[in-house]
Design brief:
globular, single chain, 103 residues, 3 helices
Length: 103
């Protein structure tokens, strides 16, 4: 995988085409890709819930996980790649949401 380092700075709610939704910790590039995916019909919608979240230990843990497992999709995407999480990373995201009073 090509070396990258995404800094995660915001919390989004992404709604899948089946109507279910999930929270994601992303950044403006990720949000832009999600907006493009919604325009192309790969997801239903994306909403930013909080900008400029604190760069806490949990955010750093999740950032390291995302950077080591995923590459940011480019504009030529033909599907939406949902970032799958381990149970440990699910808990880290729950902790980030709690730290930011979301959820």
């Amino acid at each position: 995988m090509e070396e990258q380092h995404q800094v995660l700075t915001l919390i989004e709610e992404i709604t899948r085409n089946d109507g279910s939704s999930y929270y994601e910790i992303g950044n403006m590039v990720h949000n832009g890709r999600a907006e493009l995916a919604a325009e192309r019909g790969y997801i239903k919608e994306v909403r930013i819930l909080q900008l400029n979240i604190p760069h806490s230990r949990n955010v750093i843990k999740y950032e390291n996980y995302i950077n080591s497992h995923y590459q940011m999709q480019d504009e030529s995407m033909d599907h939406w790649e949902e970032w799958k999480r381990t149970p440990e990373m699910d808990q880290v995201v729950k902790d980030i949401l709690a730290e930011n009073h979301i959820g």
